[in-house]
Amino acid sequence: MTAVVRELADFRRACDEARAQGHRVGLVPTMGALHAGHLSLIDEAKERADFLAVTIFVNPLQFAEDEDLGRYPRTMNADLDGCRGRGVDLVFAPEPSGMYPKGFQTQVSLSKITKPLEGEFRPTHFDGVTTVVTKLFNLTGPSVAVFGRKDYQQWKILSRLARDLDMPIEVVGCPIIRETDGLALSSRNRYL
Q1: Taking CA 109 as the corner, what is the angle to CA 67 and CA 38, rounded to the nearest 5 degrees?
Q2: 8 A C-beta contact, residue 107 and residue 131
Q3: For residue range 65-119, what is the model confidence (pLDDT) as tens digits?
Q4: Cβ-defined contacts of 119-125 (< 8 Å, 24+)
Q5: Parallel, antiparallel, or unpaired: how do β-strands 170-174 and 3-5 relate?
Q6: What are the DSSP calls for 158-190, one per residue?
Q7: Residue 46's closest CA among 189, 144, 138, 125?
Q8: Ramachandran category for residue 159: left, alpha or beta (phi over 0 → left; psi -120 to 50 → alpha)
Q9: How far apart are CA 77 and CA 57, in angstroms?
Q10: Cross-strand bridge partners of residue 173
Q11: Rounded CA gap, 96 and 12, in Å?
């Protein structure tokens, strides 16, 4: 049975209870619009943990003003069905105001690894990613967190974040899942 929570305190409590019961907690952070690539991350996390949390949160901090935050696909009912079908224990789907309450002003930033490649063209993107993932790591207390290598730079940044801040989290990168024509699966492919 997949539980769905929207409040940070409820999510933290459920993860704390899982760890107190001796479970190895796995985390798969997503922005929703789940596809086969996300489901492969869930499958990998299930192999590495016995309590699995998936987050579904379109993070406004990783979108610049001229990017597609308002258009980003949101498919919550289908996402929940996918999580239930994969045996996910807990889904965390907060509101932006819960993650970033009025007066929020903290930012997590890495100095070098975020600057080249995608960072050159999206200079604020990775600060948004590292800030939200740090919050999710702190709320969850996972033993393992699973990301796709489609976003290779992001995976390397988050691995460095966990290492630099001595977070006891195994940050796993999983292979790219592709369409039959070779295009990497992406939530934004729905735009095509």
Answers
A1: 55
A2: yes
A3: 999 999 999 999 999 999 999 999 999 999 999 999 999 999 999 989 999 999 9
A4: 119/153, 122/64, 122/67, 124/61, 124/62, 124/64, 125/62, 125/63, 125/64
A5: unpaired
A6: HHHHHHHTT---EEEEEPPPB-TTSPBP-GGGG
A7: 144
A8: alpha
A9: 14
A10: 147
A11: 17
Helices and strands, number each (H, E), in the chain: 7, 6
Cα 82 from Cα 36, distance rounded (Å):
9
Q: Look up residue 27 and give its two tokens.
A: 């985390």
Annotated catalytic residue within 23, 35, 38, 125: 38
Among 182, 184, 187, 174, which residue's Cα sits nearest to residue 40? 174
- The average pLDDT across 46-55 equals 98
How much is the pTM?
Answer: 0.96
Is 35 catalytic? The answer is: no
At residue 167, what is the residue type? M
